[in-house]
Amino acid sequence: MTDTKTKISIRNLYKIFGENPEVALQQVKDGMGKTELQETHNHVLGLNDINIDIETGKSTVIMGLSGSGKSTLIRHLNRLIEPTSGEVWVEGENILEFGEAQLRHLRQRRMSMVFQKFALLPHRTVLQNAGLAPSIEGQNERKYADEARKWLDRVGLQGQGDQYPHQLSGGMQQRVGIARALTSNSDIMLMDEAFSALDPLIRTDMQNLLNELQAELQKTVVFITHDLDEALKLADHLVILKDGFVVQQGEPQHILLHPADPYIEDFVSDINRARVLRVRSVMLKTPDAHGERAGEIDHDDTLESVIARSEGDTALSYRVMKDGKPVGVLDMRKLVRALVPSAQSEDPESARRSG
Asked: What's the pTM value of the predicted model, to 2 decimals?
């Protein structure tokens, strides 16, 4: 577990809730699913053989519907929940072997957590809430104030340090929660449905803020959500859970273009693919992009922006650029094909035969 690219490595992780989880664990390993386990043994299968590598400095989004196990999983990363079986490695250390002092250091210095319900202390000012981690370590307000104020300013709460949580809107309270996580100076940020309690416009603002902060700070972020649009907007690595097991994981664009399971196909079927897919995912990769083109586009442009630029002309093609260098060619006909979900974009002859 010494790979420097991997910050957190989850291996063969199981969690079963009930009076005798060890006995139930063997049933699960023998192939029993969540519904049968609950009906026959009155145990709840929370996690089923989870294996995920979380890369340093990237955003890993874990998503699924209610009951999929996503919130259970994130709470294993700082041992708020103890597993039935398996390992959780953080920077080469198996945290399941940690004693109380090591675990306390993990939670206070190496990991921070942003909750759905903000979890601010009502009797503390905004500044004091942002400085919670250093205050727990024994620092007085004078010592941590500058650092806390710096992050409050960074998340858009300039001049709000003397306010109390009840004086702020929901979006502002969540900004305090993010500032608190940043003031702790931890490399890892755990975010459990952090934006789901917010109104849609505020939620979009918070997603944009997180992406801006991540581009600047490159924290290792583990973000839990049930919203696919949010997941696709935030994720470098996407993990989709169902009934406690991983259905598919990988780069979000790849999952959208190549769903590996009917469950995933259903998940992505209603997504506005033009708004989500990027040029880099559908272009022909080649350093030789010479010849007559309609112009140059960036590898990270959305397909929606290219469609607008082309005014719908499918005869055009564009030279794709990255950091000022040509990396590929995008043909508008290929772009249009990418907008059709894979289940509907099969070979025309096979579609005719199946009909």
From this structure: 0.86
